[in-house]
Amino acid sequence: MLLSLGANPLSGYATMFTAAFGSLEGFSETTVKSIPLLLVGVGICIAFRANVINIGGEGQMVMGALLATAVALAFPAFPSFMLIPMVLMAGAVGGAFWGAIAGALKAYFNVSEILSTIMLNIVAVQFMNFLLRGPMIDPAEIERGTGIPQTMRLSENADLPILLEGMRMHLGVLVALLVAVGAYFLLWRTAIGFRIRSVGYNPDASRYAGISVPKNVTSALAFSGAMAGIAGAILVFGSESHRMVTDGGSTGFTGSAGFNGIVVALLAGLHPLWSVPSALLFGGMLVGANALQRAAQVPSALIIALNGLIVVFVVSSEYFKQRYAQAGRVEEPDDNDNGVIVTEGGNNE
Amino acid sequence: MSDSFAVMIIVATIASGIRLATPFLLASLGEALGQRSGVLNLGVDGVMLLGAFGAYYAVLQTSNLYLGLLVGIGLGLLIGLFYAFITLNLHAEQGVSGIGIYLFGLGMSDLLFQKLVGTPRPILPFMPLEIPVLSGFPIVGEMLFQHSIIVYIAFALVPIMSFVLHRTTYGLNVRAIGENPEAADSLGVSVMFTRYSAIIIGNGLAGLAGAALAIELGIFQQNLTNAMGFIAIALVYFGAWSPKGVMIGSLVFGLVQSIVLQCKTFGVIPRSASDLASMAPAIITILALVVVAKRFKQPSALTKPYVRGG
Fold it and tell me: What's the pTM?
C-alpha cells in the first residue's frame, strides 16, 4: 500500500516504528494516543459480549467530555484530589447516560442500536456545537469578538498530572489501564458480567433462567458508554490546551476514536486485557503515521483506510475459524474464546 | 410585495429541499434493495465518499459530468462486489464489516484526495460545471423542474424500483430471499445470485449518490458526506423498506435541512439555536424508528447469512 503511494515501504514502516516506539518521548506520545482507543475498545468489548453493536462511541465521548467540562467549570476551586475523580466520574456518567438511551431504545422499543447510536452521535455533536458556541464559550472569545467555539482554560486543579517529567504521558494512562482490568473483572468475576455475557450468548436461555434481557442490554450499553465518556473527559483534561474545542464535527475532538476503538476491540478478540496491546499498536500507528506524513508525505488518512481493511479482514476470518473448528469435529468454542460475534438480527418480531 | 417575496422564499426552500433530498434518496433506495434481500450494508457512507471523490476527480480531469457519474457508480459496483463476497461467501458479520467499509472509504477518499489533488488547491471554481446539465428541460415550475439531471434520475428510480420489486420475478425473488431464503432456495431461486446482484446494484446507487453530492456541491473535502450515508440507512427504516416510503423520508429530511438552512441565512434564529435545530433530523429519525419498529416488520432474514442445510 505504501509502495503505491510512491514511498519506500521498508523505510516507511521503519519511520513509523521508530517514531512510535523508538524513544521514550515517542512511546509517551503513543500511550497518550492509545488512551481513548483503549477505553472505547474496552467499552466495545462489553457491549459486543452482550451482542450489542455500539457504534455510538463518538457521541458518548462527546457527552462525557461535556459533562466533565461542565463540572470543572462549576467547581474550579476544588482541590485536585477531589476535582479529578469528579470530572472522570462526570465523564463516565455522561457517556453512560448516552449509551443507556440507545440501550433502552433497543431493549424496550425494539430500535436497532446500530441506527440509534449513529443518530445519537449526530445529536451529541450538535449539542456540543451549541454549548461551545453559546452557554459554555470562553467569555474572552466574546470580548475579543473572535468567537472561537471553545471553553476557557479549565481549572488547573483538573489538569491530569504528568507522569514523566517533560513528556506528555499523564495520569490518563493509568486510569485507562485500571478501567481495562476493571472491565475484565466485571465481565468474568461478577454476576453483572455473567448476566451480560449470558444475554449476549443466548438470550432465550437467559430469559428462561430468569435473567432480564432488556435490563442487561441497557446496562451493557451504559457500561460501554461510560468507558467512552471517561475517554472523552481524559481527552479534555489531558489535552495541551486544557480546554474543550469544537471544529463543528466529532472527529476533530475524538480523532475518530469512537470508531477506531471498534477495531481495537475486534483485534483483541473482544477481550479487555488483550485490548491493551491492541490499543498500543493502533496508538503507535497513529503516531507513526504522523511521522510518516512529515518524512515521506504519505497522508495519515492512510491509517483510517487501513483500519477499515483490518476490520473487514478480522470479521471475515471468523468464517475460516469456524470452518476449521467444524473440520476438526471440534465443538463450538465456549464464549471465553475469541468472541465469535453471532448477531441474529436482534430485532425481529 | 411581501407576499411575493414570501412565495419566492417558500419556492426556493422547497426546491433546495428536493435538491438536498437527492443523495439521500439514491443511497437509501440502494440500501432498501440490499436490505430487502436480507443484507444490511452499513458502509453506505464510505461508498458515498469514494463515489464522491471518484466523480470529483474524473470531472476535474475531463470536465465530463456524465463520466463523473459513471465513475461514481463504477466505484460503488466494485465495493459492492467486495462487500457481497465478504458477507455472502465469508459470512462476515454485517454490522461490523459495514463499519470497516465505512472507515476504508473515509480514509481512502481522503488519502486519494490529498495525494492526487493536494490539500491547498482551492476547488470552488469548479462550481459552474453543473450549469449545462440544468438546461434542456421544460420549466414547468421553479420548484420541481429546475434541477440537475441527477435529481430527475433519482426520482425516476422510485417508480422503477417499486415496479421491479413488486411486478417482476427478480423483485419477487429478492423479497422472498429477504424473508425466507430456505424456502426460496428450495424452489430453485439462487440465493447467491440474487443477493450478489442486490448488493452490487445497491452499492452502485450509493456510489451514484456520492457522485451526485460532489457534483452538486462542486467540491470534495475530507468527510464530505458528514454521516449522510448513515442517515440514508435510517431512512430505509423510516420508509419501512418501500421505495415510496424511502422517497417520502428523503423529502422530509431534505426539507427539514433546507428550512434550517434558510432560517440560518435569514437570521430568523440565532446561531447557537441553529445548532440545536440541526439536531432535529436525527431526533426525528430516532422517533420515527420507534414508531416503525412497532408497526412494521423488517425483512426476517436481515443480517442472517444463508447456509444451505444449515
Answer: 0.83
